[in-house]
């Protein structure tokens, strides 16, 4: 990764630190992954789209748990008030659907069984390892690093803006209702990213802290990238599905 040449050598300004975050996104965010490129080009089969939705559910399900861990680690009331909105966005509330249920709507609209998706039993082993790594990051690293790892939300509007129109244009069995998860994220993600970015820039006040927050964002990008690596290996090329994992009806025998 090409970063500012003085990373780790001197204290960066807030603007320099933010610039590096965006460099990480340009180089490492999964919008560049071959599986995503196949998706937006319309080249994935329905079974491959199902595999993506099923495995991505595991990540969606872990987000509010990860955020609850981060919430519990802060002694700052204002921080907790702001951060808990993330849990509400994903878990919803009584009588109000959250992002997790909207993702389930996508999965079932693709023909997957609700209970099978929720169980996560058919997910790829690498998917479970990846989401477990995200929980571990939030739990075991510093609070500042855990917050920094969420800065992938700086880049998510770009992937949504590309993904949604492409999917609607290329896959005739998918409708706007099917993709209802993504619409709220276009305002939720920038709101959350703005708060997290301000927090990180305000608290990464030493060379060591700045190095660690950059590494935390890289680690989060690696987690997301590795999930698509696993999907590509299992469902595209070479097409080796691990024992016990989801097998699409249209997968070559």
What does this structure look like?
With 253 residues, this protein is mainly alpha-helical. It has one domain: Up-down Bundle (Heme Oxygenase, Chain A). Helix content is 68%, strand content 0%. It has 11 helices and no strands.
Question: Secondary structure elements and their pairing?
Answer:
Blueprint (H helix, E strand, L loop, with lengths): L13 H15 L5 H8 L4 H28 L3 H15 L7 H11 L4 H6 L5 H16 L2 H7 L6 H15 L11 H22 L3 H29 L18
Helix pairs in contact: 1-11, 2-9, 3-4, 3-5, 3-7, 3-11, 7-11, 8-10, 8-11, 9-10
Distinctive features:
Heme Oxygenase, Chain A; about 70% helix; 11 helices; mainly alpha; about 250 residues
Q: How many domains would you count in the coordinates? A: 1
Which series of helices and strands comes N to C? HHHHHHHHHHH
Radius of gyration: 18 Å
C-alpha termini separation: 39 Å
What is the count of helical runs?
A: 11
Residue ranges: pLDDT <50 for 5 or more in a row? none
CATH class: Mainly Alpha
Please report which band the strand proportion falls in: under 5%, 5-15%, 15-25%, 25-35%, 35-45% or over 45%.
under 5%
Number of strands: 0
- CATH fold category name: Heme Oxygenase, Chain A
Largest sheet: none
Would you tell me the structural class of the helices and strands? mainly alpha
CATH superfamily: Heme oxygenase-like
């Amino acid at each position: 990764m090409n970063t500012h040449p003085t990373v780790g050598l001197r204290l960066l300004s807030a603007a320099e630190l933010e610039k590096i975050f965006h460099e990480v996104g340009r180089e490492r965010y999964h919008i560049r992954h071959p599986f995503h490129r196949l998706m937006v080009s319309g080249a994935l089969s329905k079974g491959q789209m199902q595999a993506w939705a099923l495995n991505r559910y595991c990540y969606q399900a872990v987000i509010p748990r990860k955020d609850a861990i981060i919430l519990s680690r802060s002694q700052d009331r204002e921080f907790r008030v702001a951060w808990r909105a993330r849990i509400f966005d994903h878990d919803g509330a009584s009588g109000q659907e959250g992002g997790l249920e909207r993702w389930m709507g996508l999965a079932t609209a693709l023909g997957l069984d609700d209970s099978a998706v929720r169980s996560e039993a058919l997910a790829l082993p690498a998917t479970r390892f990846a989401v477990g790594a995200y929980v571990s990051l939030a739990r075991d690293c510093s609070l500042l690093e855990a917050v920094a790892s969420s800065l992938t939300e700086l880049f998510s509007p770009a992937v949504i803006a590309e993904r949604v129109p492409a999917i609607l244009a290329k896959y005739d069995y998918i409708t706007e209702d099917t993709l209802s998860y993504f619409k709220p994220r276009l305002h939720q993600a920038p709101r959350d990213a703005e708060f997290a970015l301000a927090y990180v820039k305000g608290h990464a006040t030493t060379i060591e802290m700045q190095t660690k927050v950059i590494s935390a964002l890289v680690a989060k990008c690696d987690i997301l990238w590795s999930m698509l690596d696993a999907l590509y290996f299992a469902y595209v090329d070479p097409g080796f599905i691990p024992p016990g994992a989801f097998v699409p009806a249209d997968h070559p025998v």
